Amino acid sequence: MEKIEITTEFIKLEALLKFAAVTGTGGEAKLLIADGLVSVNGEVCTQRGKKLYPGDRVSLEGFEAEIAKA
């Protein structure tokens, strides 16, 4: 599992996927989220603006990450 460190209070799901280089564009991230392919803390999430905080876990087709405070 990859650790993604953030310096802000939270990061939005769509931004996390771009930041972690899981997707190349926001459009790709939007489609993956809308198609129900992304899970947050073990539950499917279709909200691209979902706020992720340190301790949250995101998974998508073989990619797993935990948000951590930098």
Strand content: 25-35%
> Any idea what the radius of gyration is?
11 Å
Segments where pLDDT lies below 50 for 5+ residues? none
Specify the CATH architecture.
Roll
For the terminal residues, how far apart are their CA atoms? 17 Å
Tally of helical runs: 2
CATH class reads: Alpha Beta
Please count the beta strands (DSSP E, at least 2 residues each).
7
Average pLDDT for all residues: 94
Helix content: 10-25%
Molecular shape: globular
The structural class is alpha+beta
Largest sheet: number of strands, sense, barrel closure:
5 strands, mixed
Order of helices and strands: EEHHEEEEE
- Spatially, the strands of the biggest sheet line up as 1-7-6-3-4
Explain what you see.
Strands 1-7-6-3-4 form a 5-stranded mixed beta sheet, with no helix packed on it. It has a two-stranded antiparallel ribbon with strand order 2-5. The radius of gyration is 11 Å and the shape is globular. By secondary structure, it is an alpha+beta fold. A hairpin with a 2-residue loop joins β3 (39-40) and β4 (43-44). It has helices spanning 13-19, 26-34; strands at 2-6, 11-12, 39-40, 43-44, 51-52, 57-60, 63-69. It has 2 helices and 7 strands, in the order ββααβββββ. It starts with a strand and ends with a strand. The chain has a single domain (2-69), classed as Structural Genomics Hypothetical 15.5 Kd Protein In mrcA-pckA Intergenic Region, Chain A (Roll), CATH 3.10.290.10.
